[in-house]
Specification:
Uracil-DNA Glycosylase, subunit E, alpha/beta, four-stranded parallel beta sheet, two-stranded antiparallel ribbon
């Protein structure tokens, strides 16, 4: 009895009127047992875990199927199994940082479904090399890895999301706009589930998204893109990697790959 009432009180903040009335009823009538119906009533008050499956894959299955069927008629990258790698590696309730990219590397067999990341064994592209250089600048003891696979970051809660999840092999931005609705669903889900998430916006393309969401100003990091063409205009020396870990406090990201 006491355990049940304590459970109800813990749930009260989620649904005060419904749970509060239930507790009063228990206490007033001295209920010493609970039948199946009341058990289900309590279960219904416990919020279900919010996942990518419930917010993206199930809810928007038709749109995703339609897009994948359309792009399958072309020679696209990354591989079909890697399109949603960012979500597979970083569960929704564990997203702590979002780094937004534009579209996958369009060269053959490079992209792995994570923004700025490449498959193991692939030569590190210029933008990613500049990212590693900036980490080295902020953490002098950091050893620049020979691997450009950022999976270790993703597993620590860094969502590496391209706004275009695919492109045609050999052609940049070929699928611009194709994934906009799904990406918006993803960003909205993160915004709602983790209001303390840190948003990293490098370049005008990523920064344009800021107008669509009410992200806390102190948790949005902005600079130019790490591309060799723009890195010197604000990316170099931006201090973002140390800033991220300062905001995360006791559970920082290990930037090694």
């Amino acid at each position: 009895m006491d355990t049940l009432i304590k459970l109800g009180r813990r749930l009260e903040r989620l649904n005060p009127k419904k749970v509060g009335n239930l507790i009063k009823w228990f206490e007033a009538d001295g209920i010493t047992f609970v039948d199946g119906e009341l058990i289900e009533e309590l279960k219904s008050m416990i919020p279900k875990e919010i996942t990518w499956e419930s917010t993206v894959f199930s809810k928007h299955a038709k749109e995703i199927k339609s897009i994948t069927e359309t792009i399958s008629k072309t020679d696209f990258v990354p591989e079909k199994k890697d399109i949603f790698n960012a979500l597979k590696l970083t569960p929704l309730n564990r997203v702590r940082v979002v780094i937004i990219g534009q579209d996958p590397y369009h060269s053959k067999d490079i992209a792995n479904g994570l923004a700025f990341s490449v498959k193991k064994g692939v030569k590190i592209p210029p933008s990613l090399r500049n990212i590693f250089k900036e980490i080295k600048n902020e953490y002098p003891k950091y050893k620049i890895s020979q691997s450009g696979d950022l999976t270790p970051w993703a597993k620590q809660g860094v969502l590496l999301l391209n706004t275009s999840l695919t492109t045609i092999r050999g052609t940049a931005a070929a699928h611009k706009g194709v994934w906009d609705k799904i990406v918006k669903v993803i960003l909205t889900a993160v915004t709602e589930v983790n209001p303390k998430c840190i948003w990293v916006l490098w370049g005008a393309h990523a920064q344009a998204l800021r107008k669509q969401y009410q992200w806390p100003t102190d948790r949005v990091l902005i600079s130019s893109h790490p591309s060799p063409l723009s890195a010197r205009h604000g990316f170099e020396g931006n201090g973002h990697f140390k800033m991220i870990n300062k905001l995360l406090k006791s559970n920082p990201i290990d930037w090694n790959t």
